[in-house]
């Protein structure tokens, strides 16, 4: 798949994931240096927000939007993943007054598993994944232009539909 950044095309690498199939298992560290796996997050329907670099404007907007909007939905789990270091994520959270589950993927292993690795840029493509409590991927959006925001409404509707 190809995504663009300000019109320049970039090839995504890694496995192609399809809605309706099991979401690939992953393990990444959070801000407390605890290993968090997909299985650890599936007690509730899960919304995974992926941003290329938390320290850029659109990524910051996306993270704050989901933190605010998903934070008002009972019975879901929200996690943000980026290639940033733990320190960069912690500094952003402190500066923005955001308290949420952040996972760092400096090695881009999540990107490889989910087919959103942008090897040429060393980042993850802006994307959203919704996973049900059985581990099935029920919604995904890989934003075709990196400087555009995702469809917040569609992602939130997909995760809200899973709340029992």
UniProtKB/TrEMBL annotation:
| Coiled-coil region list | none
Tell me the superkingdom of the source.
Bacteria
Q: Which UniProt keywords apply?
A: Antioxidant, Disulfide bond, Oxidoreductase, Peroxidase, Redox-active center
Top EC class for this record: oxidoreductase
Keyword hit for Oxidoreductase: yes
Q: What is its EC number?
A: 1.11.1.-
Name all Thioredoxin domain ranges.
17-161
- GO MF terms, alphabetically ordered: thioredoxin peroxidase activity
Q: What Pfam families does the annotation carry? A: AhpC-TSA (PF00578)
Q: Does the keyword Disulfide bond apply?
A: yes
Annotated Gene3D superfamilies: Glutaredoxin
Give the protein's recorded name: Thiol peroxidase
The scientific name of the source species is Vagococcus zengguangii
Q: What is this organism's lineage?
A: Bacteria, Bacillati, Bacillota, Bacilli, Lactobacillales
